[in-house]
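HUMAN: Would you supply a protein with fold tokens?

ASSISTANT:
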Amino acid sequence: MSVGRREFLAMPALLLAARSTDARIEELSTSFEDFTYRAPYKFGGKEVDRVTVLNVRCRLSLKSGRTAEGAASMPMGNVWSFPAPGVPYETTLQAMKTLAESVAKITRGFREYAHPLEVNHQLEPEYLKAAAQTSRNLKLTSPIPKLCTLVTASPIDAALHDAFGKLHNRNSFAAAGKEFVRYDLSRYLNAEFRGEYLDPYIATQPAKKIRMYHSAGASDPLTRAEITKPIGDGLPETLEDWIRYSGVTAIKIKLNGNDLVWDVDRVAAIHQVTEQAQAKRGFRDWIYSLDFNERCPNVQYLLDFDHRLGEKAPDAFRRVQYIEQPTARDLAANRANTMFEAAKLRPVVIDESLTGLDALLLAREMGYTGVALKACKGQSQTLLLAAAAQKYKMFRCVQDLTCPGAALVHSVGIAAHIPGVSALEANAREYVPSASKGWEKRFPGIFDVRDGYLDTAGLNGPGLGTS
């Protein structure tokens, strides 16, 4: 009996008849690619200088016999998704690679005709069981967390959506509504969504342009005077040069979260450099976002930071659009760190914490007012949580995982099709452009940004536009 079929047959009262649009998985393959960063990226107190990308290809079929192929990719992102203290980089990476093979095997074993949303709904519990088993088999001192499992499975889920869209000659976002999905959203979210489908929560046409957030890592040089070891590859090497080169209008600032003076001074320094660079361009309306990568010890640190930044650099303070994940990702274990006071100033969004609807609802209870959506958590989950965020009137942004190539195209598609998304972070062009080689010819407006905005031309064809 194939994976998922037992559960499928155990709930006949809940199941609806298969649709002619439902598809079955016929083939699914995975491969890995390794890339070295042109410059290290420091966040959360760690520097990353390499990446392993998981590539997925699949083929789906209809009962009529028609087939279509899909593809997707995603960086493993083990430093971010599996931050195990004392565990070497290679150990967490190998755990993700091993888990990826298990997830692929589980997915191949699902032989029902279904929509990708339903496939992911039925298989996610199996993926989590596989993560637990992988942790035991590898004798990991820290078990693979749910976030890491979502990242590992995300390109498989995306490849299914890509193939499904192509199978029906539809953009994948347009193929996720009532016309194609058997069940309403109450099956995937909660009873508040009874009778609803994704249609009103997804734009039928992508936004033509998406504002791009440029990342300023915690160790990135701001001016040429700060360069200690030139790269010399022809691309900008400082924040001031990137602003001119890409026409940057939004900057995401990585902060330490455990050194208040350093954090305030870093934002003030970035603002000073940015102000001078933007004056040369004649541009006035730039913005910032601040990312502490969950390193603030408590919410008081954030409130103190806001107060000091407002005093030292009031214009920088005024330009902060939102603050991302200031405290620990385990919200249930840190219920005292409510964000009500901080969120009065600007949206405070969850990122690492956002692993499902339960986390989103808990975050709302704790005063968070926004969500960071990410392709690396899966196309299925992203669409569903985007719907929830809209229903609950939460601020929405789309974040990066230093996504190159197909992963960046996928991310841009999400930002372009989710109403109300403020901007999209895209930093692979800064740190690992080699992983996107060739893509700039197909999507120059995404991979060679010169006006601070990502051009979505070409993203509304069949599938996700990634293959």
Notes: The first strand starts at residue 24 and ends at 43. The chain has two domains: 5-191, 199-455.
